[in-house]
């Protein structure tokens, strides 16, 4: 039942924000206080069908809109996002618990992808070869798919939707967004600004809900392509069901990102970078460093690194001294604390314990403090599972070769990094490592939007990745034309034209 004065998050269908007629609503809570911020609907069958019908109809005209006009919409949109940057970040922080600086980073990384979408005319250019045979030319066009969809997670409610719908729509598609039900207020504001930027009715739809709404998108014949970011089990489910329905799917899933520290690395840089990369954003990001592998004498740094991580304190989003915020839900907090308990039981050395964490003024927050384990081994569940909390597992290796073998044996391949002063060691690592995104003296190697987000192995299901050139290919089809014109058909330019054009 809805409480008085609790905002009900609208759907966005055919260019209008509409209140759902659903009987099923989900509470959106502030993870630092448990205050109910809003209620989000589980869209009805009729509402979902209306969104699809609108997207299909809008595609017929949007695909014919000149690419330069589509780019101008994105130019206006990125300007509005920059103008409202801090406002969006405050909304985001209130519903996710992220610190304000972290929330601003979330918004900014999304803006960078929109800026990339502004370059869509050059990204959609085809290829031409003259005289592939005598008097025959071949050339290709890049054309939109139709209706596309995106299913996004709670941890980046600005950045990840902005990974998806701006590029897809700039390519000439229409788009259905299903944001996380845990923090829908940020995507709603993004859509309001997109409408203000001049986006035509129907090019973007927003449906809220849970598994039933996701299944509708996966099964709906009109949806040609689906982009997803989330957990491994859900990613596998979406990839299987979507491809079984003959759809194009890119599913970004979990990770277990390793940072390899060589003994010749800059110690202060390692400590400073590893602290933020492991517990920043409460560890709730798929590119967080959750495993640090210390090679040789670098193992002597573990106690000092644990001591520095222990100094990081969680707090409210507007606390400038806070290193990170709460976990997204009480269930997430319990899951992380269970892993910490399990790690102890498995024999890992608990160097810093984040359980029973409290924050003044926020007695009901989903707090877990920074946590560090030593003597972690490959057979432990805390190593094998993605904990998705402010927990760092430390391991030791005798050589770079052993560290590479350890990382390559892991089923995930989202991101990794190495800290070293040796160009030869860095070259060997980047060449031999079986991970899609590699940092050298950089802890979290998230590429800028003119590249693509290229996770490997169990971290990604699909063929073409997010943003960059790969996303343009994901959201488009290539049409190749082979043409021959006969010189004998050239009209005699000297003959008088005796007809009158009545059109």
UniProtKB/TrEMBL annotation:
<keyword id="KW-0560">Oxidoreductase</keyword>
<dbReference type="GO" id="GO:0006210">
    <property type="term" value="P:thymine catabolic process"/>
</dbReference>
<dbReference type="GO" id="GO:0006574">
    <property type="term" value="P:L-valine catabolic process"/>
</dbReference>
<dbReference type="InterPro" id="IPR015590">
    <property type="entry name" value="Aldehyde_DH_dom"/>
</dbReference>
<feature type="domain" description="Aldehyde dehydrogenase">
    <location>
        <begin position="17"/>
        <end position="481"/>
    </location>
</feature>
<dbReference type="InterPro" id="IPR016161">
    <property type="entry name" value="Ald_DH/histidinol_DH"/>
</dbReference>
<dbReference type="InterPro" id="IPR016162">
    <property type="entry name" value="Ald_DH_N"/>
</dbReference>
<dbReference type="InterPro" id="IPR016163">
    <property type="entry name" value="Ald_DH_C"/>
</dbReference>
<comment type="similarity">
    <text>Belongs to the aldehyde dehydrogenase family.</text>
</comment>
<protein>
    <recommendedName>
        <fullName>methylmalonate-semialdehyde dehydrogenase (CoA acylating)</fullName>
        <ecNumber>1.2.1.27</ecNumber>
    </recommendedName>
</protein>
<dbReference type="InterPro" id="IPR016160">
    <property type="entry name" value="Ald_DH_CS_CYS"/>
</dbReference>
<keyword id="KW-0520">NAD</keyword>
<dbReference type="InterPro" id="IPR010061">
    <property type="entry name" value="MeMal-semiAld_DH"/>
</dbReference>
<dbReference type="Pfam" id="PF00171">
    <property type="entry name" value="Aldedh"/>
</dbReference>
<dbReference type="GO" id="GO:0004491">
    <property type="term" value="F:methylmalonate-semialdehyde dehydrogenase (acylating, NAD) activity"/>
</dbReference>
């Amino acid at each position: 039942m809805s409480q008085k004065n609790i905002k009900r998050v609208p759907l966005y269908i055919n260019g209008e924000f509409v209140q759902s007629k659903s009987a099923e609503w989900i509470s959106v809570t502030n993870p630092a206080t448990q205050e109910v911020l809003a209620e989000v609907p589980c869209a009805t069958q009729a509402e979902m069908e209306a969104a699809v019908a609108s997207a299909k109809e809008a595609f017929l005209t949007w695909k014919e809109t000149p690419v330069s006009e589509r780019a101008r919409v994105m130019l206006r949109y990125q300007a509005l996002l920059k103008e409202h940057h801090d406002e969006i970040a405050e909304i985001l922080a209130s519903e996710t618990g992220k610190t304000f600086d972290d929330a601003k980073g979330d918004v900014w990384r999304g803006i960078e992808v929109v800026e990339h979408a502004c370059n869509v005319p050059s990204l959609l250019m085809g290829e031409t070869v003259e005289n592939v045979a005598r008097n025959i030319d071949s050339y290709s066009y890049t054309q939109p798919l139709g209706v596309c969809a995106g299913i996004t997670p709670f941890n980046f409610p600005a950045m990840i939707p902005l990974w998806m719908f701006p590029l897809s729509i700039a390519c000439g598609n229409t788009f259905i967004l299903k944001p996380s039900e845990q923090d829908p207020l940020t995507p709603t504001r993004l859509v309001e600004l997109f409408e203000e930027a001049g986006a035509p009715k129907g090019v973007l739809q927003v449906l809220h809900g849970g598994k039933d709404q996701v299944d509708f998108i996966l099964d709906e014949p009109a949806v040609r392509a689906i982009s997803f970011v989330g957990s491994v089990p859900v990613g596998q489910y979406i990839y299987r069901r979507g491809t079984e329905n003959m759809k194009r799917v890119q599913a970004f899933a979990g990770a277990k990102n390793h940072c390899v520290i060589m003994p010749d690395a800059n110690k202060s840089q390692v400590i400073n970078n590893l602290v933020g990369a492991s517990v920043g954003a409460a560890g709730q990001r798929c590119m967080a460093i959750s495993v640090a592998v210390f090679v040789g004498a670098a193992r002597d740094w573990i106690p000092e690194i644990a001591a520095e991580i222990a100094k990081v304190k969680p707090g409210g989003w507007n606390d400038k001294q806070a290193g990170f915020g709460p976990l997204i839900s009480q269930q997430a907090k319990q899951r992380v604390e269970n892993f910490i308990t399990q790690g102890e039981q498995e024999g890992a050395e608990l160097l810093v314990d984040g359980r029973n964490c409290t924050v003044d003024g926020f007695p009901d927050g989903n707090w877990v403090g920074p946590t560090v384990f030593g003597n972690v081994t490959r057979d432990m569940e805390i190593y094998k599972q993605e904990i998705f909390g402010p927990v760092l597992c430390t391991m030791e290796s005798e050589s770079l070769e052993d560290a590479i073998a350890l990382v390559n044996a892991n089923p995930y391949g989202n991101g990794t990094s190495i800290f070293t002063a040796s160009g030869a060691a860095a070259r060997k690592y980047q060449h031999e490592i079986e991970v899609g995104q590699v940092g050298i003296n950089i802890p979290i190697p998230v590429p800028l939007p003119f590249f693509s987000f290229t996770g490997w192995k169990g971290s990604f299901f699909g063929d073409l990745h997010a943003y960059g050139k790969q996303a343009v290919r994901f959201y488009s089809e290539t049409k190749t034309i082979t043409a021959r014109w006969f010189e004998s058909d050239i009209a005699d330019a000297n003959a008088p034209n005796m007809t009158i054009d009545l059109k």
